[in-house]
Amino acid sequence: MTAHPPAEFPRIVVHAPALDGSRRVTEGDVTLGLASHLDDVVEILRMADLDRIEVEESDLIEWQGGGPDDWPGLTENPESP
User: Are 14 and 56 a contacting pair, CB within 8 Å?
Assistant: First the structure.
């Protein structure tokens, strides 16, 4: 039986959007933060010293309930009242 080498990076999960469109970011059982946009995920990982992970393309990040472009309720050009 061959032992697997230790992972270079932890497994990160960006959870499915909540009702407000935010997404929880976890490493194992630890919540790293709450993201409302892809830039938030990048910042959360930076603060956890995991900024070497390529957020949109990494196999180390599991995107649940949609990928890096799925942020329900987020509009790029909100309409002015």
Answer: no
Are 37 and 20 in contact by the 8 Å Cβ rule? The answer is: no
Buried b (16+ CB within 10 A) or exposed e, 16-27: ebeeeebbbbbb
pLDDT per residue rounded down to tens, the chain (81 residues) = 444 445 555 689 999 999 998 999 999 999 999 999 999 999 999 999 988 888 888 888 999 999 999 888 655 444 544
CA dist., res. 67 & res. 46, Å (int): 19
